[in-house]
Amino acid sequence: MSEPKVSIVIPVFNGSNYLREAIDSALSQTYSNIEVIVVNDGSTDDGKTEAIANSYGSRILYLFKPNAGVSSALNYGIKHMHSDWISWLSHDDYFSNNRVEEDLKFLAEHPDARVIFCRSNYLYHDGNIKETQYSVSEISYPGQIFMMHDINFCSITFHKSCLEKVGYFNEKNRTTQDIEMQLRLLKYYKFYFNENTSVTIREHSERGTFIQAQQHKKDEMLLADIILHEFSINEFFPNLNLEENFEMNDKVSSLLWMSYYVSENWGAPHAKYAYLRKALSFQSKNLIRQLGVLFEILFRFDIPVINRSSYNIGKLFKKIIRRIKNLYLSRL
């Protein structure tokens, strides 16, 4: 049986400062059956990025394309790869030299896994390194990603077949495509944690999220819309079985949590208010349902006066609830 092949895809735009270190970390892997694909996303640095890539000759597959963003470059590289497993390496980050070897050992021990992730070390400009600590062995639903404050996509290795279900990276999303893809993958696949290897993430002022601040804000709004319209609250919190369980505290609390998250992290008021409307609507329905149960109990006393008054009070309460609901919805 042949050894699995892994493609390390490195998208780059004007990345001459750090590209060499990223490529070197990919080529120095202790596992040999790899291909390193460098995709130049239309760099405009007088050929500096291209010169570095070309210096490696046939040791890498070098591709050049017009600028269209990280997602576009990743998709371009993936479509040119000759393997089943994919690892994304940003041009300013680097892998530990046992990254691929340890990933494949882990996959051999977990043959059903299609997505795995490893430790992330964050390297700051002063030389300090902070390692991300994970208290879980797997991630099984989208809500966990937010509770863990996201994981870096360069720590992920996934099987190419996953793209048949989730599609390629969203090329309209230039700066939060990593979070979007993680959420899409988690609709269908568990993420398994491999603690035996790592990626180092370089924190610096030239990162895309910093130099494309306005675009990043737009992409956060886009991501909030995608979550609001393409993910149910039940997909984010499946263990609560919210679609069938009418316990108010579970669902309302979850909706309030989502409204807080999209507001505090992305400043997305439209998504925030949409979740609040859902929470209010559900709470109103739940209150009416509970009142109905109360009046049914009263009816069963078989006392004519109570029956008549309960029926009339019930109708009045329903009108009041509807008015309160409409009033609040109009103000959100």
Q: Tell me the CATH superfamily of the largest domain.
A: Spore Coat Polysaccharide Biosynthesis Protein SpsA, Chain A
Q: Approximately how much helix is present in the residues?
A: 40-55%
Write down the overall mean pLDDT.
84
CATH level 3 topology of the largest domain? Spore Coat Polysaccharide Biosynthesis Protein SpsA, Chain A
Which H/E pattern describes the elements? EHEHEHEEHEEEHEHHEHHHHHH
- Note the gap between the termini: 61 Å
Beta-sheet strand percentage? Answer: 15-25%
Structural class: alpha/beta
The CATH architecture of the largest domain can be given as Alpha-Beta Complex
Q: How many beta strands in the DSSP annotation?
A: 10
Based on CA atoms alone, the radius of gyration comes out at 26 Å
The major β-sheet equals: 10 strands, mixed
Number of domains: 2
Q: How does the overall form come out from the CA principal axes?
A: elongated
Identify low-pLDDT runs.
Answer: 242-248
CATH C-level category of the largest domain: Alpha Beta
* Count of discrete alpha- or pi-helical segments spanning 4 or more residues: 13
Describe the overall structure:
The chain is α/β, with parallel strands linked by helices and 332 residues long. The protein folds into two domains: 6-211, Spore Coat Polysaccharide Biosynthesis Protein SpsA, Chain A (Alpha-Beta Complex); 232-331. The chain has helices spanning 19-27, 48-54, 70-79, 99-109, 142-147, 163-166, 177-186, 208-211, 213-230, 233-236, 248-266, 269-299, 304-331; strands spanning 6-12, 34-41, 61-65, 85-88, 94-95, 115-123, 129-131, 138-139, 156-159, 191-202. A hairpin with a 5-residue loop joins β6 (115-123) and β7. α11 runs antiparallel to α12 (269-299) and α12 runs antiparallel to α13.
